Amino acid sequence: MQSLHYQLHKIPVEGGVLSVGEWGNAGPVLLCSHGITANHLSFLDFARQTLGEFRLLAPDHRGRGLSASVAGPYSMEAHARDLVAVLDYFNIERAPAHIGHSMGAFIGVVAKALYSDRLGEFILVDGGLPLADELPQGLTTQQVVEAVIGPSMAR
Predict the structure, then answer these.
(1) DSSP string spanning 81-138?
(2) Which of 60, 63, 104, 131 gives the lowest tally of CB atoms within 10 Å of its CB?
């Protein structure tokens, strides 16, 4: 029976050091983003279920989990930059896929918009934004993000 490879990495980012869990050491990279009240370990069961098929990289987003001490800003853009820092740290030019749960889905949408050349397909689980042409009239994507998860971020 194959064992589950796990390693915790410390990656320097603007404002501190980001903790990133890595499961697997072969296969396509899946970049995983957790929800607002979670941490990278929320992907442990997924890592077990996909053992040997993928290499999962899951940061504790700034202000959360083992990255709680990373200074703000805590904007979706800052989280998106952190995802790129993770890819850079591992010398990954382009992650074939990004999986985002809840707040992680919002991070994925912003990251894809800002860094489409670095991220391939993405899966949004319990989150995401309306398409640009479906936004309420006069609102920007950033305003919608702030309206939807702003209260949780403030807590």
Answers:
(1) HHHHHHHHHTT-S-EEEEEEETHHHHHHHHHHHH-TTTEEEEEEES-----GGGSPTT
(2) 131
Residue-wise pLDDT for 121-146, tens only, equals: 988 887 655 555 555 667 676 776 77
C-alpha–C-alpha distance, residues 58 and 18, integer Å: 10
What's the length of the chain?
155
CA gap 98, 112 in Å, rounded: 9
CA distance 84 to 117: 11
Asked whether 149 and 107 are in contact (CB, 8 A), the reply is no
pLDDT, one tens digit per residue, over 68-126 is: 999 999 999 999 999 999 999 999 999 999 999 989 998 998 999 999 999 999 888 87
Distance CA 132, CA 45 (A): 34
Check if the beta carbon of residue 82 is closer than 8 Å to that of residue 57: no
Q: pTM for the whole thing? A: 0.81
User: What CA–CA distances, in Å, run from 52 to 46, 55, 120?
Assistant: 12, 8, 20
